[in-house]
Write a structure and sequence with these properties.
There is one protein chain. Helix content is 49%, strand content 0%. The chain has 150 residues and is an all-alpha fold. It contains seven helices and no strands.
Length: 150
């Protein structure tokens, strides 16, 4: 569950501080939660009709997972600055930093930026939680967005 900024932490104005919109971050959070609940593959090459087997394969972590593909494409389509912000939010949400460290963590994320941002982020089992916590530390939440409008 996302926490509120500590009493000595002033919420930052995301419109001035983030290049990635909070709405996009919230979309990634929702999709990352879908991706995180995937189970291990029990039948690597199912030959049955998906409708006949209760569409169980959709719950398994296949290499051609459509949620992973959608998230990867979405993250890759973001600008470099937006990708840097995602990584910085993730690090902030991991409890590695305080909200007041935003400029520092963003600078560090910018130095570390490369073409594997989507792969890096999707490799984190708690990505959705980290992003949600990072937003919360900056005084925002996903409750204010209607995710169907992206």
């Amino acid at each position: 569950m996302a926490r509120k900024p500590k009493s000595n932490e002033a919420p930052l104005d995301l419109d001035d501080e983030l290049t990635v919109s909070a709405e996009k971050v919230c979309f990634i959070i929702v999709k990352a939660r879908e991706f995180d609940v995937k189970d291990a593959v029990t039948e690597p090459d199912p030959g049955s009709n998906a409708a006949d087997d209760g569409e169980v394969a959709v719950l398994e972590d296949h290499a051609d997972d459509p949620v992973q593909q959608e998230l990867t494409a979405f993250i890759n389509a973001l600008s470099e600055d937006e990708q840097i912000d995602l990584v910085a939010l993730t690090w902030l949400g991991r409890d590695d930093y305080e909200a007041s460290d935003w400029a520092t963590v963003r600078d560090e994320a910018a130095r570390e930026h490369n073409r594997r941002t989507a792969s890096y982020l999707l490799g984190m089992p708690l990505l959705a939680d980290f992003l949600e916590e990072g937003l919360s530390m900056l005084g925002r939440s996903c409750e204010e967005f209607e995710l169907g409008r992206l």
